[in-house]
Write a structure and sequence with these properties.
Helices cover 36% and strands 26% of the residues. By secondary structure, it is an alpha+beta fold. Strands 5-2-4-3-15-12-14-13-6 form a nine-stranded antiparallel beta sheet. Strands 1-9 form a two-stranded antiparallel ribbon. Helix 10 packs antiparallel against helix 11. It starts with 10 loop residues before the first helix and ends in a 13-residue tail after the last helix.
Length: 392
């Protein structure tokens, strides 16, 4: 396979790579995977446990397109007070304005956040962001809208599972290792479906009994019907991420804890279809694409890579961005100050099957923070430690 280096003399490595690719499509379904790679299920289960013991996790990828949502990626600068309380601000935005993730930009005091916004609320959502800027909470905001976004499958053929290290050749032209994703039309769903998706995003390895307990479903039969007939058959989850970094919100577990990673965000606007395709192809030469999305003239990618590959990645990025550097931002992120959120169901109206978005109520909640800000500015002695349990 062009562009992919398989560890020499290891038939089991090839099988492990096949297993990893199938996990991206089907999740941790051991019986299906064992049949597909013609390996006894006991052996596949042993390999899978090895992955888990080494810090790998399996997480479902929400099909936001089938939920009728578009992804908005924003580069923002917060007011000083709110920047010091970013954890509180972004948690509030998750609860009220569909925020799905945020990360701090290194050495800049800026953040990148993403929101998965129901299509019918894109306009009001954008208006709300402008009002937050006028109110002073946001000093600046730059956004792009993506029609599609995907979790990029692990390039397992380039990974040495024994040493937990990547082996690849940037000079080779890669063969796409991506699984086909079911974007499809908008589907019907309900609150129970959203809760199930949220649990799969956290840990797709949990049993159905454990998941039923987590979502608070009383009837096991009804719960499994939602899981199979809605979430799976309607492709509300469009694949699974085999998280090889072991990182969850900037923290690593297992042997992965010993390895340090860097995050880089690539945000492009006013790009032609050809330019987007060329940029994606260049970035795909390394097996470190984590997220990738595109819209009308827009492109977004996040690359996550071990720090020992920083030099080679820097060279690749310089080459990839050279033709479009006037329209693409390259941002070095701080993975220690980041958070990912699952799809939330609290603003979904079960009766009308629509999402709630009350701009006035949301503005009032942020205005209450403004009042605290003014009170702190006027009344708090210098040096007084004021924060909302900020962890970043």
């Amino acid at each position: 396979m062009a562009g992919v280096q398989i560890v020499e003399g290891s038939r089991s490595h090839a099988k492990m790579a096949q297993m990893a690719q199938l996990i991206a499509q089907r999740g941790p379904n051991i019986d299906e995977i064992s049949r597909a790679i013609q390996t006894p299920s006991e052996t596949v289960r042993y390999w899978y446990k090895q992955l888990l013991n080494r810090g790998f996790t399996v997480q479902g990828s929400c099909n936001y397109e089938s939920l009728g949502m578009k992804r908005v990626v924003a580069k923002v600068e917060l007011d000083d007070f709110f920047r010091d309380n970013a954890y509180t601000i972004f948690n509030l935005m998750h609860q009220s304005v569909f925020l799905t993730a945020y990360a701090k930009i290194k050495k800049r005091g800026f953040f990148v956040f993403s929101a998965s916004v129901p299509e019918e609320w894109i306009g009001p959502w954008a208006d709300l962001m402008l009002q937050l800027k006028k109110a002073g909470m946001l000093r600046s905001i730059e956004t792009i809208t993506l029609d599609r976004i995907r979790s990029v499958p692990m390039r397992a053929q380039s990974f040495d599972f024994e040493a937990c290290r990547w082996r690849f050749d940037l000079r080779a032209r890669p063969t796409p290792a991506d699984v086909a994703e079911n974007f499809g039309p908008k589907q019907k769903y309900d609150t129970m479906d959203l809760k199930i998706i949220g649990q799969l995003q956290v840990d797709a390895n949990m049993t159905l009994a454990e998941m039923r307990e987590q979502v608070g479903a009383r009837n096991y039969k009804t719960f499994t019907w939602h899981y199979r007939e809605h979430v799976l058959k309607r492709h509300l989850v469009k694949g699974y991420r085999l998280n090889w970094t072991g990182m969850t919100d900037g923290r690593a577990s297992g042997p992965a804890r010993k390895r340090r990673y860097s995050w880089v965000d690539v945000i492009g606007d006013h790009l032609s279809e050809t330019e987007k395709a060329q940029l994606a192809a260049m970035l795909g030469r390394a097996p470190f694409l984590w997220l990738e999305g595109s819209g009308i003239q827009t492109y977004y990618a996040r690359m996550v890579f071990p720090v020992e590959h920083t030099s080679s990645l820097q060279s690749l990025l310089e080459t990839a961005l050279s033709p479009v550097k006037d329209r693409v931002k390259l941002l070095q992120m701080d993975p220690k100050h980041a958070m990912h959120f699952t799809v939330q169901s609290q603003n979904y109206d079960e009766v009308s099957r629509t999402w709630r978005f009350n701009k006035e109520e949301i503005l009032q909640s942020f205005e209450s923070l403004h009042r605290i800000r003014r009170q702190v500015s006027n009344d708090t002695p210098a040096g007084h430690p004021w924060n909302f349990h900020e962890n970043s």
